[in-house]
Write a structure and sequence with these properties.
Layout lengths: L1 E4 L5 H12 L9 H10 L5 E7 L2 E13 L6 E9 L8 H15 L4 E5 L2 H4 L10 E2 L8 E5 L7 E4 L9 H17 L8 H8 L3 E3 L5 E3 L4 H5 L1 H11 L1 H6 L1 H7 L4
Helix pairs in contact: 1-2, 5-6
The chain binds coenzyme A.
The site of coenzyme A has 19 residues, from helix 1, strand 4, helix 3 and helix 4.
Length: about 250
């Protein structure tokens, strides 16, 4: 097993390993490959290590800077960390975490936070500290490892790459774009994805109770359409929710 920094030729394999590791993960939205991609694009991947076995990338770990509301500098976030399912249980995760933490310390980092289970990460020095919180994350899975004596006291914010939209939110955006182009906007305002997008100020409510995408964001979300079309083509359950598609599928269209 070799642990080394990522190379440009690893990018695709890292995305595949990450996707496979988080597939079906009950607490995740499968946004991890996009998080890594956006961190890299923004030159915000402080550390990106891969584990290579027989010339194949089978594991990956990312670290990026975080900010803490009390002003403590030089803290980092661990994650995502992924090992291909068929390679799990072979100490690859252990090697990635220990190598990553050593590298962080050599860069004068003062500590590291992560979202994960205590039963796995406490072996690497991570604990639950009640004074360090991350909004929206249950306290029992928000863990920190201080490399210095003092543990900061405040709210942690990750790089904006971590604020990815979930698939259902992207799907709802696609609905709004398509509906707007074809037949005006007809959305269910009680749909949780629509509610969430309104809260994130990606959609705005118009006086007639309909919604639209904030004009400055239309170009950005247009690019989701291709991705969504592919998603819809493979998600057959979706067909049953869409009367037009269902009619076509059952030969009534
Ligand atoms: C979590 C993950 C990176 C661990 O990698 P791994 O190479 O399988 O882990 P290791 O072989 O180093 O595990 C070492 C020990 O931790 C245990 N362990 C592994 N995953 C665990 C988990 N999720 N919870 C508790 N213990 C775990 C192993 O059983 C092993 O125990 P042992 O010391 O008694 O033998 C890997 O399982 C994975 O990719 N999971 C899916 C993605 C994920 O959940 N990432 C973490 C959140 S960012």
């Amino acid at each position: 097993m070799i642990i080394r920094s990522e190379k440009p030729s690893d990018i695709e394999a890292i995305a595949e390993v990450t996707k496979a590791a988080f597939e079906g993960h009950p607490l995740r939205q499968q946004t991890e490959p996009a998080i890594i991609y956006d961190l890299r694009t923004d030159a915000a991947l402080t550390i990106s290590l891969v584990c290579e076995v027989d010339g194949r990338v089978v594991g990956h770990i990312a670290f990026s800077s975080v900010t803490i509301s009390d002003g403590t500098p030089n803290w980092h976030g661990l994650g995502p960390i992924s090992v291909l399912p068929e390679y799990q249980g072979n100490r690859i995760g252990t090697a990635l975490v220990t190598n990553g933490l050593s590298l962080l310390k050599s860069m004068s980092s003062k500590g590291c936070v992560l979202v994960g289970t205590l039963s796995y990460f406490n072996r690497f020095g991570f604990w639950n500290h009640s004074q360090l919180i991350h909004e929206g994350t249950p306290q029992e899975v928000f863990l920190a490892n201080s490399f210095v004596e003092k543990v900061p006291n405040g709210t942690v914010a990750y790089h904006q790459a971590f604020n990815q939209l979930s698939m259902i939110e992207k799907d709802a955006i696609a609905d709004v774009i398509i509906d707007y182009a074809i037949a005006g906007i007809k959305v269910d305002l009680a749909d949780p994805a629509i509610e969430s997008l309104l809260e994130k100020e990606i959609l705005t409510e118009m006086p007639d109770g309909k919604v639209m995408i904030r004009p400055s964001l239309i170009a950005k979300y247009d690019s989701y359409l291709a991705q969504i079309s592919q998603f819809r083509a493979t998600e057959m359950s979706r067909v049953h929710k869409n009367p037009i598609l269902a009619a076509i599928k059952h030969g009534n269209g």
